[in-house]
Structure formats: structure tokens, C-alpha cells
């Protein structure tokens, strides 16, 4: 994966409003904003196609990016992205400034590994993923692109919870920091695959509800 997706050029935008944004989009430009830290929010314009291509990579959303804003490098995280309802276009993107030494609060994806080594899955089980990302806090230098969930030793009819995960050094789970035990979310369950008769019955029930 090219590191080029982590660096994008942008310009400060002074022509604001819906009409201006529509004109930018017709020119394949993408309106956006940078906020956070002690500086005021800054409206910016980016190349739509470059951002759209970068957005195909999972790491784009969980990596510290560099925006070259009129020649000035600004480190940011993607915080929100508005997409067109049915066209493959991005309408607006929000970036949050990243300050060295200041804790980040963001989501990172989970990568489930070692299904091929799981005795339960080899015996006919299936892995049911309950969450595909978790909310974390960490310093910018510790931000992982993803967190691995090893299911090699998960037994049949067993569930891995957040507290069972081995988080990288410097990473804290936001949910586990809450007092209520219900925040120890189920992450993945290995259970027997449905039998053919059960699957057919489920299909019939679904059809009868339509």
C-alpha cells in the first residue's frame, strides 16, 4: 500500500456557502474543514478524485494523515465523511487536527485472524463478528491502523469480549473504561453452523414475512 494516500494537498477556501460548494464539486473539487486544537476551524478544498481513491483504503480512516494546506503541513485524522446517496462521490470531509503529545479519541478496525487454525471452525463452526471496530484513546505515536483479534483458540459456543483482546501498548478501550460491566462488548462468537433443515426453515419464515 502506497504511503501517498497519507499525504494530500489542500487549499484554504474563502468562498463559502452551498452555491460555492456545488461549483467546487462540478470542478471535481471537494470541500472540507479542519478543526480541533487551539486554532480556529479552517475551510479547505481538496482534489475529489485523490481523496476518493485514498478512501478505498481502510488505513485512510485510522492513520494520521498529512494535509499540505497552501504549503503548510497539518497532521489530521478523518472524523467524518459525507457521501452522495447513490453516486460514487464524496460531498464533504471533516478532519481533526492531531497534536503531538495530546491524546486521540478515535475508532480503529478489527482484523480477525487465524480462523484457519481454529479447531472449532475446522469442526464445522462459524465465526460471528459482533463488532468490526472499537473506540480507543491513545497518543498519536501509538495509533494502530488496526487491532488483531486471534480466534485460533476460541472454543465452540464461546465468545471473545473486549476484555479478552490484547491491545497494543499505549492503547485504551473507551468502552472498558466505563464503570458498567455491560460495556465489555461481545466481539466474536464461534458457534455451530446452522443445519440445512434449520436454514430452510429460516428461509421459509423470511419468505412468509414478505
From TrEMBL:
Gene for this protein?
rplY
Instruction: List each copy of the Large ribosomal subunit protein bL25 L25 domain by range.
Output: 8-95
Ribosomal protein found in the keyword field: yes
Q: Which InterPro entries does this entry report, sorted A to Z?
A: Rbsml_bL25/Gln-tRNA_synth_N (IPR020056), Ribosomal_bL25/Gln-tRNA_synth (IPR011035), Ribosomal_bL25_b-dom (IPR020057), Ribosomal_bL25_C (IPR037121), Ribosomal_bL25_long (IPR001021), Ribosomal_bL25_short (IPR020055), Ribosomal_L25_dom (IPR029751), Ribosomal_uL5_bac-type (IPR020930)
Q: What is this protein called?
A: Large ribosomal subunit protein bL25
Q: Which family does it belong to?
A: Belongs to the bacterial ribosomal protein bL25 family. CTC subfamily.
The major lineage groups are: Bacteria, Pseudomonadati, Pseudomonadota, Gammaproteobacteria, Alteromonadales
The terms describing its cellular component in GO are: cytosolic large ribosomal subunit
- UniProt cross-references to HAMAP family, sorted A to Z: Ribosomal_bL25 (MF_01336), Ribosomal_bL25_CTC (MF_01334)
Per UniProt, residues of the Large ribosomal subunit protein bL25 beta domain are 104-192
The record's annotation in Pfam families points to: Ribosomal_L25p (PF01386), Ribosomal_TL5_C (PF14693)
Quaternary form?
A: Part of the 50S ribosomal subunit; part of the 5S rRNA/L5/L18/L25 subcomplex. Contacts the 5S rRNA. Binds to the 5S rRNA independently of L5 and L18.
**Does the record carry Ribosomal protein as a key word?**
yes
Keywords attached to this entry: Ribonucleoprotein, Ribosomal protein, RNA-binding, rRNA-binding
Q: Which NCBIfam families match?
A: bL25_bact_ctc, PRK05618.1-2, PRK05618.1-5, PRK05943.1
Amino acid at each position: 500500500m502506497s504511503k501517498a494516500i497519507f499525504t494530500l494537498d489542500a487549499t484554504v477556501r474563502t468562498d463559502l456557502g452551498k452555491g460555492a460548494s456545488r461549483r467546487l464539486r462540478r470542478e471535481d473539487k471537494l470541500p472540507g474543514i479542519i478543526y480541533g486544537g487551539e486554532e480556529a476551524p479552517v475551510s479547505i478544498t481538496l482534489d475529489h478524485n485523490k481523496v476518493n481513491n485514498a478512501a478505498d483504503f481502510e488505513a485512510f480512516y485510522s492513520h494520521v494523515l498529512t494535509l499540505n494546506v497552501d504549503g503548510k503541513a497539518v497532521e489530521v485524522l478523518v472524523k467524518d465523511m459525507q457521501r452522495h446517496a447513490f453516486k460514487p462521490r464524496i460531498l464533504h470531509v471533516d478532519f481533526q487536527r492531531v497534536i503531538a503529545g495530546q491524546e486521540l479519541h478515535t475508532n480503529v478496525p478489527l482484523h480477525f485472524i487465524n480462523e484457519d487454525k481454529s479447531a472449532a471452525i475446522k469442526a464445522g463452526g462459524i465465526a460471528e463478528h459482533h463488532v468490526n471496530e472499537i473506540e480507543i484513546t491513545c497518543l498519536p505515536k501509538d495509533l494502530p491502523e488496526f487491532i488483531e483479534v486471534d480466534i485460533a483458540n476460541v472454543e465452540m459456543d464461546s465468545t471473545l469480549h473486549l476484555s479478552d483482546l490484547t491491545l497494543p501498548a499505549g492503547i485504551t478501550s473507551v468502552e472498558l473504561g466505563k464503570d458498567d460491566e455491560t460495556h465489555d462488548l461481545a466481539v466474536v462468537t464461534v458457534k455451530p453452523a446452522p443445519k440445512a433443515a434449520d436454514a430452510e426453515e429460516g428461509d421459509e419464515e423470511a419468505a412468509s414475512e414478505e
